[in-house]
Amino acid sequence: MSKQEDNRVLSRRGARMISEDETTRVNGGLHTETKCSFDPRIGVDGDAFTNDCIAH
Amino acid sequence: MKIIILAQPNDNHTSPVKWALQQAGYKVACWPGLSWTEPQQACLQVDGETKLHLGPHVVEPGDAIWIRRSEPPVLNPKTSEADKKFVENEYRNFNYTVHYVLETLPVRCVNKYSAARFVNNKGVQLHLARVCGLKIPKTVLTNSPQAIKGFFTDNPNRMICKSLTPHMWERQSGGGVAITETFEITREELPRDEILTYAPGIYQDMVVKQFDVRTVLMGDRIYSFALHNPKKALDWRADASKGKVDVEIIATPPDVEKGLLAFARKTGACFGSIDFAIDMEGQWWFLEINEQGQFLWLDQSNREARTLERFCAFLTMPEGSTQSLEERAEMFPSFRDFEKSLEKEDVPQLDVVVPGSPFLSTEP
Lengths: 56, 364
Description:
- The complex is a heterodimer.
- By secondary structure, chain A is α+β, with helices and mostly antiparallel strands.
- Helix content of chain A is about 20%, strand content about 10%.
- In chain A, strand 2 (about 40) and strand 3 (about 45) form a beta hairpin.
- The N and C termini of chain A lie far apart (about 35 Å).
- By secondary structure, chain B is an alpha+beta fold.
- Chain B is about 30% helix and about 25% strand.
- Chain B has twelve helices and 19 strands.
- In chain B, helix 1 (about 15-25) crosses helix 10 and helix 4 (about 120-130) packs across helix 8.
- The interface between A and B is large, with 51 and 83 residues.
- Strand 1 (about 15-20) of chain A pairs antiparallel with strand 11 of chain B.
């Protein structure tokens, strides 16, 4: 890990790199390939309330 | 009676549920959430009677409201920069009003917004699960380096770390995307104290598991599915997304079912997806609940799961009905039927990533 990356949050260090193909799957899509929970558009598996946020 | 789904119509769970409900003759409307545009404007009239309009849809007594994934409020882009903070607060407040007032009307909410917000707190979940008699791994949620190190020092077990909210980091240079995931960590691998204060986290005993279970709660019915992952990954979701997890229908142990129903009563949640880890002795360890967790992939992996039919039956169950969920489920088509219908249609895809999402960061 570079000196710059040494300053990152612990969760970023434990994060997993995913492929572009996988990104598409986890981003939600109508064809229900989405089995992972992550939908960065608005929330994640219902466990985060972006209603608290404002879309710009 | 109609069903109003708070989500984009092409959300990956909204679309099949809407289709299945319509096939059974139900009237279904989608409202994605509050926005300045006309179809997403809302109006609450409080007079002799209280009326709530969600865009063109009027909320009427007896309706069922599935708060699947309502989107954050969208401001009019022409709003003056000088007014932006005021407008953000007004929209945020009105958005809460719209969601909370639903549960005061004679409609059925899945879930009630207050229950959804409450139960989505990881610490609340773990505490109430334990109070309700479910086994939970020893856990600390903290931003205190001392507490974290103390937790590791006094504990001979293998440990994991996970975030309170999921996140993705996208490299500007096109160097890929990193996604938060549960990971094992030792005392020696902990970074310096200051880093541990950058973000609170969840530190937990690792359950050495035989397999995972995803349980779906629908009212007083509980459906459990064993997830067999040949790689025995700590976090099965990545492999599930590649179709590498076998889904087996299993019975929920009576004590777990009793604990979960007590948990549901305490939290007010009538619907949710719950994750358990099953240890080598066969004991069920509660990990978390996602009140709008995804469930239809279970049907895709095991045609007998029938969560689509059951969810439709649950959503449309009339007040005071004595009909069983299983009996009502017969009214609805299966997920396979939905997939077949898709083959005949050209259905639009969602955007892959929306810039500005609070769950997506860009890094150098």
